[in-house]
Amino acid sequence: MDSFVRALASVDAHFVFLVFIGSFAGLVVGALPGLSATMATALLVSITYSWNFNDAMALILGVYVSGVYGGCVSAVLINIPGAPSSVATTFDGFPMALKGEAAEALWTATFHSFTGTLFGFLALAVAAKPVTMIALRFMPMDYFLLAVFGMLSVGGLTSKNLTKGCISGALGVLLAMVGTEQVMGMNRYTFDTLNLQAGISLIPALIGLFGFTEVLDQISQGNMKATATSCGRMRRDFKGQMKHMGLSLRASVIGTIVGAIPGTGGPIAALLAYNHAVATVRNPKRPFGEGTPEGIVASESANNACIGGALIPLLTLAIPGDAVTAVILAAFYVHGLHPGPLLFTTTPDLFPIILIGGLIASVIMLLLGMFVVPSFSRIVLVPKKFLLPIVSVFCVIGTYAAGNSVFEVYMMFVFGLIGFLMRSRGYPVAPMVLGLVLGGMMDTNFRRAMNLAAAGDNFLTSLFVHPTTLVLTALVVVTILLNIPPVGRFVRRKLNV
Amino acid sequence: MPFKMKASPDVKDGLFFVVLCIAALFMALDYHIPGSLPLSPALFPVLTSVVLIGLSSNQIRRAATRGAEAAEQPRIASKTGPVVTIFLLCLAYTAIMQKVGFIAATVPYLLIFLLALGERRPARVILVPVVAAAVIYFFFEKVLSVALP
In the predicted model, is pLDDT for residue B4 greater than 60? Predict the structure, then answer.
């Protein structure tokens, strides 16, 4: 308690101003397709390494919180997630914008991003150690099963045809095999090309599959008029949003738990929460995927709650929960701090400063969302024939800026073409991205699990002896069964859904 | 059970994926290190390829048994010509940008892009590329300190 009082006393106007600057920068970076909060945080680490730690953390937390939130702006307005964790926001956000409800979609995203962030940081404060203890018990097989469960959920979620969704996910996993593998150090599918030895970078794949695909898709449709007629004025209806608080809290719980499991992060949290909303919301405003606010509530609450969740293993175990926290971990080391259980005893003021900085960042994010974001909506009024060439330049520059490599720009074009062909054939691209993100982790953990099981007395019992493994296996089996049409129909009939 | 294989895109896609995955499977077999199967670098790519072959076969089976008419109708691109043109333009833009720099490559690229999309008003065709290239350059190079070509 003393450390909280001391930390509060150290918070002054300078600290709040730095959080504001970071938040504004995070919003811009998050809203622009191709620029990520990870990239901005990495740039900030190099800029702030000589600052005192509190100031550096103020700026970085601002970028982190608003960078995750900012992804929803382009997701709603131009159907391109500004950050990977906003993928699920496009499902209902963009259809709402097309119906002339962009302002309502953005307000819903803003309010529930705020509640999600708040929940995540409160969870960090209250439940850091218990949640970490659960995550610590995860065995390699559990990580593998969690990834399989995530991909099955996304595959069934983003396509009417589970087979097509799974094909897309499995192709992503196969693409993740490209490069030098981590266990034995062998090059796989590199074709003796130096550029492929580090594997397929995520940024060109993301920008290609979501950004450049959108450009090609819009051109193929030939309609060059504005995406939406008008955004309209943002009605900041707090009361209207309160009716979604139940879903928002449930999605925040999902986001916090998923965020606390290293290697998962915002995209999987948002997609799982969206899936949860599809399964549990009885009377949505419209069917999911056709522009219902409940889809945005689930996605944005979960991906922002992930922030607090991801900080739990980072602070207590020095394990980053996602890419941005990996960069923040580097920032700790740059400032001579070593996170882990000792962080709380050696530097007790640090934990409250991060909590307070995060809470201030979430309030500033809400204010920016209320008063600054509506002006971003002018993008939708620009005719596509002006917007698409500029988006294509952002795709090229965003890819180039992340890796300083022209090869990655060409790779982005290839992914754009793949995404375009997949879309035109009815294959969802989101499972492919998830496969690409989780493929390496799945490979490593699957082989570790097999190795552990092979060393045991009985292969099967060694593999499935842990309660978490059994629960996750059951989830995977149930997901597969529910996506078999006759079984799904039978269950829905029995449950009267 | 009548099989109606004619022109179902799902069948064609499935066959393409089967061929692709058989190639990936044979390549993966080369990555096997004798001695320890659980830790073999070939294990997971082989498993993924086999799963993909199974999924693709399932897709072919479903499309074939339902018939081409009943299969899920894919949304075929209505205009492939402009897509090919713009894709080639983007490739050329990236190649030229390396040689002449961001501004010198982006202004003509945007100009040609706008003309290709049907914009004919001279003021907009000239102003939009110049202003957009300048603003993007300033934002990335000066504000974000991102080095552009």
Answer: no
Give which of B48, B112, B141 to mutate to test A binding, by max A Cβ within 10 Å.
B48
Q: What is the pLDDT of residue A165?
A: 85
Any chain A CB within 8 A of the CB of B107? no
Does residue A336 register a pLDDT over 80?
no
Higher pLDDT, A287 or B147: A287
Chain A CB contacts of B146 under 8 Å are: 397, 401
- Which among B38, B49, B80 is the nearest to A447, CB-wise? B38
CB count, 10 Å around CB of A309? Answer: 37
Comparing A14 with B70, the larger pLDDT belongs to A14
HSE, CB side, 13 Å, CA atoms: give it for residue A404.
Answer: 3
Is the predicted pLDDT of residue B102 greater than 70, yes or no? yes
Does the CB of B8 have a partner CB in chain A at under 8 Å? no
Buried b (16+ CB within 10 A) or exposed e, A312-346: bbbbbbbbbbbbbbbbbbbbbeebebebeeebbee
Q: A174 CB near a chain B CB, below 8 Å?
A: yes
Q: Give contacts of A446 with chain B, Cβ < 8 Å.
A: 43-44, 47
Q: How confident is the model at residue B1 (pLDDT cuts 50, 70, 90)?
A: very low
Per the CB < 8 A criterion, the answer to whether A428 and A158 are in contact is yes
Residues in chain A: 497
What's the mean per-residue pLDDT of chain A?
Answer: 81
Strand partners, A188: A179
- Minimum CA–CA partner of A186 in chain B: B41
Structure tokens at B79: 């205009």
Give residue for tokens 């918070």: A11
What are the extents of the domains in chain A?
A: 2-495
Using CB atoms, which residue from A167, A219, A224 is nearest to B17? A167
- Give the ipTM: 0.90
CB contact under 8 A, B136 and A394: yes
Please, what is the angle between helix A53-78 and helix A350-371, to 10°?
30
Distance CA A22, CA A368 (A): 12
